[in-house]
Amino acid sequence: MSTSPRIKTRQIETRLARSRRHTSSRAALDRLYARAAPVSYALLRVVFGVVLFTHGLPKLLRTSHGSMADPMAGSINLIENVMHLPAAPVLAMLVTLLEAIGGVLLAAGLGTRLIAIAVAVEMIGISYALGPTWPWIDRGIEYPVMMLFLAAYMAVHGGGRCSLDRLIG
After folding, report:
1. Backbone φ and ψ of 68, nearest 5°
2. Neighbour-count burial of 73, counting CB atoms closer than 10 A to its CB (0-12 exposed, 13-18 middle, 19+ buried)
3. Is the pTM for the entire model greater than 0.85?
4. Who's near 99: CB < 8 A, 6+ residues apart?
5. Exposure b/e, 11-36, CB count within 10 A at least 16 = b
6. For 49-88, how does the pLDDT look when each residue is reduced to its tens digit (9 = 90+)?
7. I want to staple 102 with a disulfide (CB 3.0 to 4.6 A). Which of 34, 98, 112, 148 is the partner?
8. Collapsing DSSP states into helix, strand and coil, what is residue 135?
């Protein structure tokens, strides 16, 4: 039993109409994603900066942070006794300034590449100091590893369209 040419033509027209609707919907989504990308990247950068800032400020103010009564002392201890680096108080202060001031600058998108590289190096050091622990509990390396890759991503991409880096040039 063969189908008539009229039925075949309708089937082809129906398929073409579906294909056009699909292509039109896909194009609309592509435009939406293209418009949302700079804003979503800026939001990622801001949240990353704020999280970093919340780790630097308690050290700077020498106030408690989470389970740490004195996070600056904890940083000095980590640098001195675990990483065995010299000038632990100076390095701890540099890390603190990177987290506190660098976090604000990252959120604003100013000096993004340089600060992100410095944060990535810091996160490599923290991951090394924490060693092979990977538990999803306090003191595992999942947090610094995630921060490392976010910082590396920002170092590659820069401040983005919605940043002070772009405004300045």
Report:
1. -100, 120
2. middle
3. no
4. 52, 53, 55, 56, 57, 59, 122
5. eeeeeeeeeeeeeeeeeeeeeeeeee
6. 999 999 999 999 988 877 778 889 989 998 999 889 999 9
7. 98
8. coil
pLDDT at 1 over 60: no
Q: How far lies 37's CA from each of 1, 52, 128, 155, 158, in Å?
A: 53, 22, 33, 17, 14
**Which of 121, 106, 122 has the alpha carbon at shortest distance from 157?**
106
| Other residues' Cβ atoms within 10 Å of the Cβ of residue 102 | 25
Report d(CA 166, CA 101) in Å as an integer. Answer: 19
User: Is the pLDDT higher at 19 or at 46?
Assistant: 46
Coil, helix or strand at residue 74: helix
Q: Which residues pair with 68 in a beta bridge?
A: 65
Checking if the pLDDT of 148 tops 90, the result is yes
Q: Mean pLDDT: which of 24-28, 117-121, 137-141 is highest?
A: 117-121
Q: What is the helix (H) or strand (E) element at residue 58, kind and residue range?
A: helix 5-61
- State the amino acid at position 17 in one-letter form: A
